[in-house]
Amino acid sequence: MGIVLKQSFINTLIVYLAFAIGGVNVLFLYTRFLDGEYYGLVTFLLSAANLLMPITAFGVQYTIVKFYSSYKSKIERDKFLNLALILPLLISIPLGFLGNVFYEQISFLLSEKNAVIKDYTYIIYLVAIATAYFEVFYAWSKVQFRSIFGNFIKEMYNRLAVMALLFCVYFKFITEVEFIYYLTGAYFLRLLIMMLYAFKLYFPKITFSLPSNYREVFKYSLYIILAGSAGAILLDIDKVMIPGKEEIALAAYYSVAVFIGTAIEAPGRAMLQILQPLTSKAINENNFTEINKLYKQSSINLLLVCGLFFLLVNLNIQELFKLLPQEYSGGKWVVLMISVAKLYKMYLGINGEIIMNSKYYKMLLPLAIGMALSVILLNDWLIDLYSTDGAAISTLVVILFFSTIKLWYVKRNFSITPYSNKTGQLIVLIFLVFVSFYFWNFQFHPIVNIALKTLLITVIYLFAAIKLKISLDINKLLSRFIKI
Question: In sequence order, which residues have a C-beta less than 8 Å from that of residue 481 and are 6 or more positions away?
Answer without folding.
Answer: none
